């Protein structure tokens, strides 16, 4: 279940899954509907829907240097943005969130390192301190700090 499982454990008021292809959003929403208040819509349906506390970009758009077609109204200064992708420079999604004065933005580098550490722990039985690893990678990618 990935990120959705962790989010549902926090018991949010609602989760909205959106996709360019509404049927794909519907598939995901239906698969997890019994676990919480999960709905689905297309990007165009977000217009007029209000704002969100957290927006997660799980698309591959950032890998292509593109921005998902989110309407600006979905974010406020209190919205947090998380892009599951990471790069040496801020992703288009992170730049968009920053332009909207989002409270906080983050990329997927930490998730990548944490997943690797979890695999290492499962195989070796050793818990790693991931913060020095993340700091070392960020030091090699200074535009992300």
Provide an overview of this structure.
The strands form two sheets. This protein has a three-stranded parallel sheet, covered by helices on one side. Strands 1-2 form a two-stranded parallel sheet. The protein has helices at residues 3-9, 22-32, 92-99, 109-124, 131-140, and strands at residues 15-18, 38-41, 54-57, 80-83, 104-106. It is α/β, with parallel strands linked by helices. Strand 4, helix 3 and strand 5 (104-106) form a beta-alpha-beta unit. The chain contains five helices and five strands, in the order H-E-H-E-E-E-H-E-H-H. The model has no long low-confidence stretch (mean pLDDT 88). The chain has two domains: 3-108, Rossmann fold; 109-145, no CATH class. The protein is globular, with a radius of gyration of 16 Å.
Summarize the SSE layout with pairings.
Blueprint: H1 3-9, E1 15-18, H2 22-32, E2 38-41, E3 54-57, E4 80-83, H3 92-99, E5 104-106, H4 109-124, H5 131-140
Parallel strand pairs: 1-2, 3-4, 4-5
């Amino acid at each position: 279940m990935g990120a959705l499982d962790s989010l549902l454990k926090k018991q949010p008021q609602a989760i909205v899954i959106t996709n360019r292809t509404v049927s794909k959003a519907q598939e995901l929403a239906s698969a997890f509907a019994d676990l919480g208040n999960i709905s689905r819509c297309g990007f165009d349906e977000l217009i007029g829907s209000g704002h969100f506390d957290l927006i997660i970009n799980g698309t591959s758009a950032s890998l292509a240097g593109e921005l998902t077609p989110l309407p600006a109204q979905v974010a406020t200064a209190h919205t947090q943005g998380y892009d599951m992708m990471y790069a040496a420079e801020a992703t288009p999604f992170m730049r968009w969130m920053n332009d909207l004065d989002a409270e906080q933005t983050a990329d997927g580098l930490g998730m990548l390192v944490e997943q690797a550490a979890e695999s290492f722990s499962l195989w070796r039985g050793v818990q790693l301190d991931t913060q020095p690893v993340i700091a070392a990678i960020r030091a090699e990618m200074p535009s992300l700090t």
